[in-house]
Amino acid sequence: MNVVTPATQRKGRYDAGVMKYKEMGYFDLDYQPKDTDVLAVFRITPQDGVDAEEAAAAVAGESSTATWTVVWTDRLTACENYRAKAYRVDPVPGTPGQWFAYIAYDIELFEPDSIVNLSASIIGNVFGFKPLKALRLEDMRLPISYVKTFHGPATGIVVERERLDKFGRPLLGATVKPKLGLSGRNYGRVVYEALKGGLDFTKDDENINSQNFMHWRDRFLYCMEAVNRAQAMTGEVKGTYLNVSAGDMEQIYERAEFAKQLGSTIIMIDLVIGYSAIQSIAKWARRNDMILHLHRAGHSTYTRQKTHGVSFRVIAKWMRLAGVDHIHAGTVVGKLEGDPATTKGYYDICREQFNPMALQNGLFFDQDWGGMRKLMPVASGGIHAGQMHQLLHLLGEDCVLQFGGGTIGHPQGIAAGATANRVALEAMVLARNEGRDYLNEGPEILAAAAKSCAPLRQALEVWKDVTFDYASTDTPDFVPTMTPA
Ligand SMILES: O=C(COP(=O)(O)O)[C@H](O)[C@H](O)COP(=O)(O)O
Ligand SMILES: [Mg+2]
């Protein structure tokens, strides 16, 4: 079964014609991945009648050096090293017709410090491959020797807290709503009210750039006026994520420069600007002492379905390398996809120095980050003050909790919405610090705090029945006690 003769030494290996990928040297169950190899695990769903091992070899081949036919020019290269090797193929537990294919890539296949180059290989061609019904990149192990070629977050969690002078609790934010249509002046009023009421941050929504109803300079000017006033009024450091996403890199830089000129501590980009743009603005942010917030706009088009696309855990790893400081990573309890076990995997990728393999959280490999700074996860999307105990329990302390509708939709106004969230959070952190079982006692803790806080009382009343209880789509395939075969 195992191929032991190096492919280049087999007779006929370089005869012109078509040969199985397995026979071309892209499959080797005896291969021991090197510490320096980039590893990937794909979920493959072969077409009926296609052998899973051949499908795995094809993915290895097409994501490294192969094409559909033998090419003699392989022999002009160190092709034995450059061929990726499928070294393990396991059936997906309880899911007939799907396999996890583990593939090792020599580090020399990848340009240092380039997500574009990494992704052009790993997800470049293979997703359209006809012998596969579907393909999903589940996880990657990035060797420390490769991690070290990236700068990672310039600010990270620890230094962000130092700059903001905020410790011991999650940070609080709000996405300005409605998403589109406000004039700059009215937008600035929302920012001021939310910050004055007790939030640390407000933010632009993913699709706020520079439309006719509000050009970007208007927004930046009114927002920074609001930030400065709120800081003066509260004595706290405040910020607003100014979205600098634009149609070209020149405009992104121009907007970022203006945000800096106005004294903003933070700017924002959308994932859809692309990997090169993200790495470029991350380097700009490093040079300019600017916190960089990433909204993962667009990710669900390819991360959510289990048989297709790229898991968000891979995107989170790439973004930590790329050097953003914040990343949207899910809420579990809110309006958008977020299985608790899967989401824990994302948060661990952002916040740990070392991720041990944790199949129950979707982490297929150990991942060493060296000293790379930590990425602040941002929980956002359909959350409100009544869920504070669950949010603190599920997501921990080092995160931003962002309530858009859950601030601006408050019946007594935006500042009251912000106050409700701040009081709910502080009450919950106090209960945690006192050693209380705050998860189970959460509703009582909130009710007690609401006795002396009318805004919290009103928030709990208006949103008391709001939950988003739907089955998760992106769930792990392993229960805690299971290891792969
Ligand atoms: O506008 C919102 C949330 O608004 P609201 O708080 O009113 O629901 C964000 O775009 C989503 O959170 C993104 O989702 P994710 O954070 O999962 O990427
Ligand atoms: Mg949004």
TrEMBL record:
Superkingdom of source: Bacteria
Note describing how the cofactor binds: Binds 1 Mg(2+) ion per subunit.
Ranges of residues in domain Ribulose bisphosphate carboxylase large subunit ferrodoxin-like N-terminal: 26-146
Site (Transition state stabilizer): 335
Modified residues (N6-carboxylysine): 203
Magnesium is among the record's keywords: yes
GO biological process, one term: reductive pentose-phosphate cycle
Keywords: Calvin cycle, Carbon dioxide fixation, Lyase, Magnesium, Metal-binding, Monooxygenase, Oxidoreductase
One Pfam assignment: RuBisCO_large
Additional notes on this entry: The basic functional RuBisCO is composed of a large chain homodimer in a 'head-to-tail' conformation. In form I RuBisCO this homodimer is arranged in a barrel-like tetramer with the small subunits forming a tetrameric 'cap' on each end of the 'barrel'.
HAMAP family cross-referenced by the UniProt entry: RuBisCO_L_type1 (MF_01338)
Function: RuBisCO catalyzes two reactions: the carboxylation of D-ribulose 1,5-bisphosphate, the primary event in carbon dioxide fixation, as well as the oxidative fragmentation of the pentose substrate. Both reactions occur simultaneously and in competition at the same active site.
Name of this chain's protein: Ribulose bisphosphate carboxylase large chain
Organism whose genome encodes this protein: Rhodopila globiformis (Rhodopseudomonas globiformis)
Lineage: Bacteria, Pseudomonadati, Pseudomonadota, Alphaproteobacteria, Acetobacterales
